[in-house]
Amino acid sequence: MLKCREVTELGSEIIDRRLSFRTRLAVLAHLSLCPHCRLYLRQLRLTAETLQRLPPEEEPKATAIFEAIRRRQDGPKD
User: Fold this and answer.
1) CB–CB of 1/30 below 8 Å?
2) Where do the Putative zinc-finger domain residues begin and end (predicted)?
3) In a structure prediction context, what are the per-residue pLDDT tens digits for the chain, which is 78 residues long?
4) Long-range Cβ contacts of 10-15 (<8 Å, 24+ apart)
5) What is the model's pLDDT at position 9?
């Protein structure tokens, strides 16, 4: 039987249904006994669904932040 760590490492594959038949059976067996992993996968699915519904940004916020930092670093020096 799979351990919790193995199930969480397979999280994306579980949600995207990219598991072999054998692995899928092992995951289902584990989930039938582990409420913690069921909750984890439910939260992971909800997060993935929420992110898919967000409108795409023209420029990722992280990129804008890094650009602002770079401009400050390249700014006038005393």
Assistant:
1) yes
2) 4-38
3) 899 999 999 999 999 999 999 999 999 999 999 999 999 999 999 998 888 887 776 656 777 778 887 887 776 655
4) 11/40, 11/41, 11/44, 12/44, 14/41, 15/41, 15/44, 15/45, 15/48
5) 97
CB-CB contact of 2 with 34 (8 Å): no
The total domain count for the chain is 1
In terms of phi and psi (left: phi > 0; alpha: psi -120 to 50; beta: otherwise), the region of 17 is: left
